[in-house]
Amino acid sequence: MPEPVVLDRVAFAWVAANGTKSWSFVEITDANGETVTVECQGLRTVDDRERIFAEFIERLRGVQITGDEEVERLLGLTREEGKANSRVVSALATAVVEFQCRYSGLSMTEALGGKPKERQLLYANLNRYLRDVKKSRTPVDFGEAAEGAAREGFTILKTDPFDEVRPTHTVDEIFEVASVSLERLAAMRSAAGDDVALQVDCHGAFNVETTIAIAPELERLGVTWFEDPVRHRDELEGLCTVVEQVTIPIAAGGDDYGEETFAELVQSGVKYTMQDVMRCGGVGVAARAGQAGARHGAQTSCHSPFGPLSNLASAHVHAATPNPHALEHALWENDWRADLIDPPEIVEDGHLVFPGGVGMGATVNWKTLESVGGVRWTP
User: CA–CA separation, 347 vs 320, rounded Å?
Assistant: First the structure.
């Protein structure tokens, strides 16, 4: 049985990833004085989430935590309260796994039930580059981004081209409204070539009827992944209808929490479940949900368009999950991403190279974080 973890205190760090998005981190120290760092989404130097972290650490101080799945219960949270505080719960739960890896000398892959791997296949997420860095979204921009990613060795690309589409549009309107979106995808297909797979991220932009209408056109363009076409959290029955009538595999779950929720997605027929280790309840939830889904034919593809530390944690989840899909990897947000962790992140020919070692195998390089304008603070 893994050695229990007793948490003691917490500190924070933040850095701007680009002109719009940021990455944030939580340093957690146990009762023995050992510290681990995990990435946590959306933390700011002045933020209510900082107060919640401090409150939760205070509740857990002196309490023996035997496993990551105990965090929600030991905090005295209902499932709805856990979901409302999913970023904090996820960070604490992942930290528990990392501490137990340190105590036992295991890699995170092993602790999650898998066998260590050397490399993890990635897919290139171009969303943040085009929206937050390039800040230009013509079909030419999409084509150039696709060509550049393919040149770097990525064989799977993802984008969110549906800027103009809303769930309120009708079937009669959808092709005119989505005309520029389809031009963006066509430009990517032409620039990247037929050997590169295209995945589309919709952010719930369609309704059931327009999803079914647009799907054949996406299939004609070679789209192999249809992410969040409808807002399934509000309309799970609608998602089931989409799965039944659309032949492109559906991906969902990037903002969902708890193993039961992912089981529901698998039962609805979703092909790719997108556990986000910073939202779903932590790496343990992500791995167990992926393992359970695999028994029913679903594949894990962690939602991971953030920094290199959460990307590495997600890679360990993939390594612990049978037959995972490629892992999400955001491109070109800055030129120092790889050096933000120690040892540096290595991406070769569209694959993430595992660093080896205990736990995740890497942590934040604080010198790099501070040199690019990042800050650290304690509550």
Answer: 20
